[in-house]
Amino acid sequence: MGQYRTHVFVCTTGETCPTQGDVEGFVKYLRGEVARAGLKDDVRINKAGCFSQCGHGPMLVVYPDDVWYAGVQEADLKDLFESHVRDGKPVERLRYRPGVQGANKKKDAK
Ligand code: FES
Fold it and tell me: What is the CATH number of the domain that holds 44?
């Protein structure tokens, strides 16, 4: 087992995700919930660069579960935190399943 049970990456410095939602606010909210739940030793919320899935954002990835989320909105964060980060149950309605491996940028995304 690594240093954290759950490691969440939020795409905050790519070219499109930060234009599709308040991703810095997502990080702040999730870090706050982690602290409130007493999970600071178990869960790490990190800012991340582009996942090469531009245009599908805002995007988050949860490891070691290897669960990817797309189109996450502020209103989804409570569910995402409580169901997946806290309780270990992925939020199926937000899962990203593009059906192709590797990079998958939308054509109109930079
Ligand atoms: S900008 Fe977020 S995946 Fe590229």
Answer: 3.40.30.10
Give the number of domains in the chain: 1
String of b and e for 60-94 (b: at least 16 CB within 10 Å)? bbbeeeebbbbebeeebbeebbeebbbeeeebeeb
- 33 inside domain: yes
pTM: 0.96
59 lines ligand 1 (CB under 6 A): yes
Expressed in angstroms and rounded, the spacing between residue 20 Cα and the centre of ligand 1 is 10
**How far apart are the CA of 100 and the centre of ligand 1, in A?**
16
Q: Is pLDDT of 110 > 70?
A: no
